[in-house]
């Protein structure tokens, strides 16, 4: 079976392709086009083997806007996973039903690249273990570019559980090609071993950052035995209201969600006009709709 162009990471996308995608997403936001008549009777499979709110529902919203019927598989208890069917077999069986595209969220244990190579429609990575979450990184960059159309040289600081973050992994494939000055701040054991611009206390980065991307502490990916104190973490890495006051006026705060309130950031931070968290969510629909529309016509990859 020939491998079709799936979106599993961002390595194949050029800066020009991404800019064109964002231009298209912006147009969708300004002038919502009609549903595609060619989508009538066709489906988009949304296979979520790990929990999700934003990613799943934004893809589903985008499917409705395009006119694709969403085929949802996200409630393990109501599927044959409960009878021991594997995730790989589940994907192959849904693929046999002929959706136009398959959107998958799964853990690292799934060899999604090998599965995608076996089926005849493109697969979109909607969060794959620690490996990547390309559509989140794209919508984050889109959101940053709305604030700062010239991203080159801007200090973008990722704070928190970086080595377990698929969002950060995808950003590291993306941001350097846009010329951003990417920095990391987190506990020593939660930073990639190769990190050069690494800091171990948020106070070292908060005053100079142009964008602060707060990341969720992903205890579910740490394995047993991890000692974690939420209050110690907040002390060293939390974006508190006091630290918010020290951010530049022009700086912006992002978080891909879901948020652990009072750990990664204080609830009041969400009310600050510099906080883009819900803007990210709104943009997620348009960016994902743009990805789907372009993949349906073979224009993205
Ligand atoms: N950012 C993100 O992936 O959120 P969900 O887990 O809710 O989809």
Q: Provide a count of the helices.
A: 9
Mean pLDDT: 95
Bound molecules: phosphoric acid mono(formamide)ester
Computed over alpha carbons, the radius of gyration is 19 Å
- The backbone outline, from C-alpha atoms, is globular
Order of helices and strands: HEHEHEHEHEHEEEHHEH
Determine the N-to-C terminus distance: 18 Å
As a percent range, the share of helical residues equals: 25-40%
The main β sheet shows up as:
5 strands, parallel
* Class by SSE composition: alpha/beta
How many E-type strands? Answer: 9
Kindly estimate the percentage of residues that lie in beta strands according to DSSP: 5-15%
* Uncertain ranges: none
Strand order of the largest sheet: 7-6-5-8-9
Output the keywords.
single chain; 301 residues; alpha/beta; 5-stranded parallel β-sheet; 9 helices; 9 strands; 33% helix; binds phosphoric acid mono(formamide)ester
């Amino acid at each position: 079976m020939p491998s079709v162009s799936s979106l599993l990471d961002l390595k194949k996308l050029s800066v020009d392709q991404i800019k064109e995608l964002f231009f298209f997403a912006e147009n969708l936001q300004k002038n919502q086009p009609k549903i595609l008549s060619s989508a009538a009777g066709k489906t988009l499979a949304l296979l979520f083997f790990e929990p999700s709110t934003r990613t799943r529902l934004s893809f589903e919203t985008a499917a409705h806007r395009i006119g694709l019927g969403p085929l949802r598989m996200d409630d393990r208890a109501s599927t044959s996973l409960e009878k021991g069917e594997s995730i790989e077999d589940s994907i192959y069986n849904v693929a046999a039903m002929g959706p136009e595209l398959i959107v998958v969220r799964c853990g690292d244990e799934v060899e999604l690249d090998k599965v995608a190579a076996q089926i005849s429609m493109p697969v979109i990575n909607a969060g794959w273990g620690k490996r990547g979450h390309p559509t989140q990184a794209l919508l984050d960059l889109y959101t940053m570019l709305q604030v700062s159309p010239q991203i080159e040289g801007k200090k973008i600081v990722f704070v928190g559980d970086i080595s377990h973050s698929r969002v950060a992994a995808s950003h590291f494939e993306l941001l350097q090609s846009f010329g951003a000055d990417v920095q990391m701040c987190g506990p020593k054991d939660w930073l990639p071993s190769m990190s050069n611009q690494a800091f171990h206390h948020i106070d070292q980065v908060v005053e100079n950052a142009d964008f602060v991307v707060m990341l969720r502490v992903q205890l579910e990916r740490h394995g047993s035995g991890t000692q974690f104190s939420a209050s110690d973490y907040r002390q060293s890495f939390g974006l508190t209201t006091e630290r918010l006051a020290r951010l530049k006026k022009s700086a912006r705060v992002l978080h891909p969600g879901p948020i652990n309130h009072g750990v990664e950031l204080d609830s009041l931070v969400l009310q600050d006009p510099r906080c883009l968290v819900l803007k990210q969510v709104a943009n997620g629909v348009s960016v994902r709709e743009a990805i789907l529309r372009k993949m349906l016509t073979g224009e993205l990859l």
